[in-house]
Request: fold
Amino acid sequence: MSTLSQLITQRAAAGAAYASAVDALKTAYINLAALDRTMENRNVVAPVPSVVFGPIPNGGPAPVLSFLRDKNAVDDLVRLLQHAEFAPSLKQDWPAQIITASNTQVASFTPG
Reply:
């Protein structure tokens, strides 16, 4: 059995771990979504039909499988991750950060 003081200490530790995990998830989500978006860009990869029967034409790359492209779903996810004390003000800017990161990747892409 835990005392109130112990529970408060455990909650603070759990809250700090949660805040750190949310930050790590945001970073990983944005990085992966940006790379997915970049790898689908026609300036980076030759277009691949969305439905391919048999081998991919010209031995090209496989289609990039990615997250659901729904800004409202991303906004809902961010709202669900918010915690009144430990993650109270998560910005609804994940899609904008994905686009910015992807645009930078495309601009600096060199074939090879």
